[in-house]
Amino acid sequence: MDLFIILVTCLSCLILVTLLNGSYAKKKLPPGPTPLPIIGNIIQLGTKDFSKSLSMLAKDYGSVFTVYFGMQPTVVLHGYEAIKEALIDRGEEFSGRGSLPVFDNFAQGLGIVFSNGETWKQTRRFSLLILRQMGMGKKTIEDQIQEESSCLVEAFKKTNGSPCDPTFLLACVPCNVICSIIFQDRFDYSDQKFHSLIEHFHENFDIISGPWLQLCNTFPFLQYFPGSLKKLLKNLAAQKKFILEKVKEHQESLDINNPRDFIDYFLIKMEKEKHNKKSAFTMDNMIVTIWDIFAAGMDSTSLTLRYGLLLLLKHPEITVNVQAEIDRVIGRDRSPCMQDRSHMPYTDAVVHEIQRYIDLIPTNMPHEVTQDVQFREYLIPKGTTILTHLTSVLHDDKEFPNPKKFDPGHFLDERGNFKKSDYFMPFSAGKRVCAGEGLARMELFLILTTILQKFTLKPLVDPKDIDITPSIKGLGSTPPFYELCFIPV
């Protein structure tokens, strides 16, 4: 009985402290739903469609509000004006990376995506410099994408017009492009290591987008229970081993006067700064940085392509219009190139509309304020996590009338010319904007145009019966499984 009284007393004190802390924080932070002790707002937020829950809360609390994940407050920014003000107008103050506990053991605050402070600044600056030197955004990478797209066409031809799941093949082009940048090599599509590499990244994206990982990020102690996190950690370990093997191969053949790829440049930088104790250029940081580049450079592009083909199956009239523009501008004999894009406003609009509509990363990666911030009428303490609700921008009904409809007209003016929009933020914005945005834009246009130049997309069911609802919608949106036939034209 004495033990029971002690436990009840301790629990009561804990709840009281939580309530007092919450009450104190609310005096500073933006308003929001009242959190419950220990679990915070998990009930209001749910786990099945987190983005929809935030939209509902925004109706009650406005464009800036606070929710609690467990006992940790998070400020949510909803709508273009609030997100632009934070990420672009006050980018430095909102440039921190918020915590994702499920990745802490793997990333250890290193790399580009999960790092902060000087480590992040040094690593991002160096990585962007080397990626540009390796041809990102230039003709050399364009040539590489065209070559890989030709390999993709041949792979689709081998299906002989039979039903196939395009998931793996659509990942091959962006993955091999990244491989050429990182370690100056590519894989044959039949290579088992290549299959495993792509499979692990696909599984990782599905897992981190699922409800269990959202709960693990909110309540880190759940990581020690059986669940999909174990699979994620196993995949991360296998990927780390793969990258480390490539680094060791490079160490044995390194010529400091003739760097071949990203790994060589990083190894040379490590050697130059080996006596600098504050240097970000370490072996551990290189491994995580390479993983970041792979994850960002492959997953987002392959998932967008997969979702894009599904949308085109659902809307064959749009596909016909794109193919008519391809015939008119490019023809059937030569490969599409980036110069064609300025003469293909409809196709360009379709690519943009795919990214807008699918809303791949609905709430963006979490940010963190790097100092105490007076934001509008609220005081946000240093270290507070910030969620930028990108759905609220990409699906803004004033900028994009009828945003739930897949309509390339959202990016076309009354004359049929391509129309830019400041609300187009699938890569985020500001200091933490995706480092591979230029590469992804190039890949999406060239790969999609090449596929539609060479094939007619044939669905297995009537287009009106095609379900385009995401199979998973958490941190990321995953398209449902489908098959189609690639019929050569």
Automatic annotation (TrEMBL):
A matching Pfam family: p450
Cofactor(s) needed: heme
CC terms in the record's Gene Ontology section: endoplasmic reticulum membrane
Subcellular location(s) per record: Endoplasmic reticulum membrane; Microsome membrane
InterPro entries: Cyt_P450, Cyt_P450_CS, Cyt_P450_E_grp-I, Cyt_P450_sf, Cytochrome_P450_fam2
Signal sequence residues: 1-25
Sequence positions that bind heme: C434
Matching SUPFAM superfamilies: Cytochrome P450 (SSF48264)
GO BP, sorted A to Z: organic acid metabolic process; terpenoid metabolic process; xenobiotic metabolic process
Calcium found in the keyword field: no
Domain of life of the organism encoding this protein: Eukaryota
Keywords of this entry: Endoplasmic reticulum, Heme, Iron, Membrane, Metal-binding, Microsome, Monooxygenase, Oxidoreductase, Signal
Gene3D superfamilies: Cytochrome P450
Principal location: endoplasmic reticulum
GO molecular function: heme binding; iron ion binding; oxidoreductase activity, acting on paired donors, with incorporation or reduction of molecular oxygen, reduced flavin or flavoprotein as one donor, and incorporation of one atom of oxygen
Membrane topology qualifier: Peripheral membrane protein
CDD domains reported in the protein's UniProt record: CYP2C-like
UniProt family annotation: Belongs to the cytochrome P450 family.
Name of the protein described by the UniProt record: Cytochrome P450 2C3-like isoform X1
